[in-house]
């Protein structure tokens, strides 16, 4: 367990010292969020109606940008091979790296959501529910994303392939995340079932993600 | 030597080539014949729908394509799993061929669906639940094909594509349920669909089909014909892939032979 936390802390430290991944993700998120009202027009009613969907899509795309970094840099300079030879099982290594991605990319994005919510004139309850669904849903984004990052480690072209592979996997999370928010903002209707399904998806990806990405990594590390 | 069972015999590429050499023309001929009969029944015998008119004929192509798109994914997943477990190259060849043929049938289902949607719903595309889940299935196929073709190391590409196919199977139920909803009365479970306009499944459902036999019979004949066509294409693609690999290994052996010849000359 000690080597798990050491690896986790090291990844977080590297991410914050480089600062590039976090900065790119947050910058992209805020740019998308700011561009949409300019494109569709400033009508507050329309904006607050489409806001949950826009914010969720912006979050997905920004998190996508940094997925490749989960394993890529460590793989290229050989660090990943050294980590793989340590006593830590590969499954826990991938879990630590996915968790580090969640803490350093997804969580900061969620923290910027209240700011984005005020741009879109969201009321407090809707904004809180949106943040809650994002907090839960981003776990699935980081852990399923690590699978795509491991699968595309040695591919010729980069970003687009990750997107094609990972977007079908994100679809259920996106649906339940946005459905939960839209049911809360438009009563009557019970948002609990879709929120619980969102939680179950995140738990399932916690269970699938580390094993699948370890399986994808294993025969690339000799 | 241990006696081989039938599966092990077929898994031998040499035996497989010899077997499919005989089998493929028969399957192809049967597929063309049955599709011809099915299409004749569909166009000249089956009644014209009183609401939909002649556009109902699209169904005879649309429904089998959608079925085969899904069956192709199942076959690809089984092949991928057996490749990861038994490491047999033929399973990988099968998975690779399935991806391409299955993707084509899924695309066919999407295109015929769009052409059918225009006269029926007034638009080529609606964000209907079942259309969306077929579209996502198509994206899964595309992801697997793209992943395989963008990794240079072929052995690695096969393994990564197989892992992706199996992850797809793990995630497909979630996609289907989240998009199409789920209703299990005896569990008290009723999840609403994301958005629906499409008619519910009317052939494969508990309590018997809801289609009249005059349409159902041509539909099933067409489905059988297209399934045979799927397997004919699949076997042909597998044969091509085996030949491609054989040519590649022959080329490599030739290069190695020339290199060793050159090095012996250089040593003189």
Summary keywords:
heterodimer; A: 222 residues; mainly alpha; 10 helices; 82% helix; B: 268 residues; two-stranded antiparallel ribbon; 7 helices; 2 strands; globular
Please describe what this structure looks like:
The complex is a heterodimer of chains A (222) and B (268). Helices cover 82% and strands 0% of the residues of chain A. By secondary structure, chain A is mainly α. The longest helix of chain A has 28 residues, at 124-151. Chain B has 268 residues and is mainly α. Chain B has helices at residues 6-10, 13-45, 59-86, 89-121, 129-149, 154-180, 213-267; strands at 182-184, 189-191. In chain B, β1 (182-184) and β2 (189-191) form a beta hairpin. The mean pLDDT of chain B is 81. At the A-B interface, α8, α9 and α10 of A face α5 and α6 of B.
Radius of gyration of chain A, CA atoms, in whole angstroms? 18 Å
Number of strands of chain A: 0
Beta-strand content bin of chain B? under 5%
**How is the largest sheet of chain B built, in terms of strand order?**
1-2
The portion of residues assigned to helices of chain B is: over 70%
Oligomer: heterodimer
Largest sheet of chain A: none
> Counting H and I runs of at least 4 residues, what is the number of helices of chain B?
7
Major sheet attributes of chain B: 2 strands, antiparallel
- Mean pLDDT score of chain A, rounded? 84
Mean pLDDT rating of chain B: 81
